[in-house]
Structure formats: C-alpha cells, structure tokens
# Entry
Amino acid sequence: MKVGIDIEDVSRFLDYDKDKTKLNKIFTQKEQEYFAKFKEKATHIAGAFCAKEAVSKALKVGFYKSLSPLDIEILHGEWGEPYIVKNEKISKLLNDKEIDISISHTKKQAVAICVIG
# Structure
C-alpha cells in the first residue's frame, strides 16, 4: 500500500479563479467547471490541488518529471465524492492497483489523502 497526503492554506489560492493562466497550468476544463459551481471557489481549488499533490506523492513521482498536474484529473461523483480519472499515464503508474482519494477543507485550510493498494 502507498499513501500520499498534502495540506495547503486556502489563502494561497484566492486569486486563482481570476487568473486563467494559473488555472490552466494546473486544472483541466472539467475541474474548472466544478469550481465554477461554488461561491467560495478557493477552498475547492485548494482541495483539488492537495489531491493532485497527494496522488503524486503516493505514486512516488514528482510533478514535471513524470507527470504534469494536468495528468491527474480530480472529478466528483453523484454525491460529491472525489475520484481520480484513470487516464493512460495514471493507469500505467498504478499497474492494476486501486486508487482512492479524500479531500477536506475549512475556510482556511485544505487537505487531501491518497491511498493506492
């Protein structure tokens, strides 16, 4: 089993919803559409960023070496539960293992954990 975790201050992401350049470097169009649903976008942006970091840590790869943040897409199911889209790069790194994530946040901080096993 592999685990990755990340925590961030939400304040770091306050201007992201106004800066498409920052958003486009890290988040896919579908992720950005999810953020647009919320009044307090920064908390959701921070949570998704934490999830991407947690996934990269659990996979034991760094961003911009093996993966770009855009390679890790965080979407949400019917009940709001986050999940990782298993694209070709992620599937190859997982090697048939399951991957789960969980995201939580307050107004000030966001945290995410990823478990692979």
In short: Residues 2-116 form a domain with the Ribosomal Protein L22; Chain A fold (CATH 3.90.470.20). The mean pLDDT is 95. The two ends are 4 Å apart (CA to CA). The longest helix spans residues 41-58.
